Amino acid sequence: MSDPGSYRSYAGDDMITGEGVAVEVPVASVAARMASGAIDVFVTLVVLIAGVFAIGFVAGGVSDAVIGILFIGLSVLAFIVLPTAVETLSRGRSLGRMALGLRTLRDDGGPTTFRHALVRGLVGYVEIYLLLGVPAVIASMVHRRAKRLGDMAAGTIVISQRAALRLTPPPPMPPALMPWALSADIAALPSGLTVAIRQFLARAPGLSPASRHTLGVDLLASTLAYVAPQPPPGFHPEVVLSAIVAERRRRDLDRLWREEQLRGRVLPADPLTR
């Protein structure tokens, strides 16, 4: 049986939210990233020029060694410290990304942290400023998610917030398998496997017959390890997969609804929501 984690590659550019819900992520285009990057570079150069004038104004009469230290500090501030601080405090945004409606997220869709911003800043200094942005442009053009080297090192992705997120529609419950699914013990599926099944069911009509059959059988074999008793014989793998995912989703939604109802009875009402 295949490792469920290996099915993450079937999910394309989707991210996982909640109970295995696949979200089709609007990855930022290379053009949008280049435009936002140009704005950020311009802002950095403005900071550098202003810093040079400030050093020249206050450094009269000091030694060359001190001036050299000041210029090194200014470079670190402009190229690393300020971009990292802005991206950390704004949760994945810079001035350029704000202007273009972009945001940096972790590969799993979560918000970035100081570590992600620092890695992106350090690698960005090399690929954007020292190498004139050539590696960043090439990497973004060849990577399927338009990642530059800093994104690859940090495990991040840049998305467009102005494009609507599209939820992959959940599979329907096949009526013929509803009695079995309602009584079966269906454990929570690994997120990667859940997303792989949903993407496979949504895209199965566009696959070749051989690939469609192979993937369906392979996914079902991995999924049945979480199901007891086994489904009735004679049903197509896609029908069984649809029944399992639909029933698992129904149970998760029921559980969340019960938890919300219990929370409402136990906790006092929020006066701000009245």
Please describe the topology of this protein:
Elements: E1 14-17, E2 21-24, H1 30-58, H2 64-89, H3 95-100, E3 102-106, H4 114-130, H5 134-142, H6 149-154, E4 156-160, E5 166-167, H7 178-183, E6 185-186, H8 191-203, H9 209-223, E7 227-228, H10 237-266
Antiparallel strand pairs: 1-2, 2-5, 3-4, 6-7
Describe this structure in words.
Helices cover 57% and strands 9% of the residues. The protein is mainly alpha-helical. It folds into 2 domains: 4-24 and 168-268, no CATH class; 30-160, no CATH class. Strands 1-2-5 form a 3-stranded antiparallel β-sheet, with helices on one face. Strand 1 (14-17) and strand 2 (21-24) form a beta hairpin. Helix 8 (191-203) crosses helix 10 and helix 9 (209-223) crosses helix 10. The radius of gyration is 25 Å and the shape is elongated. The N and C termini lie far apart (52 Å). Residues 1-22 have low confidence and may be disordered.
Q: List unreliable stretches of 5+ residues.
A: 1-22
| Helix coverage percent | 55-70%
Strand order of the largest sheet: 1-2-5
Number of helices: 10
Strand and helix order: EEHHHEHHHEEHEHHEH
Tell the overall outline. elongated
**Rounded mean pLDDT score:** 84
Number of strands: 7
- Helix/strand/pairing category: mainly alpha
Q: Strand portion, in percent?
A: 5-15%
Number of domains: 2
Distance between the termini: 52 Å
Largest beta-sheet details: 3 strands, antiparallel
What is the CA-based Rg, rounded? 25 Å
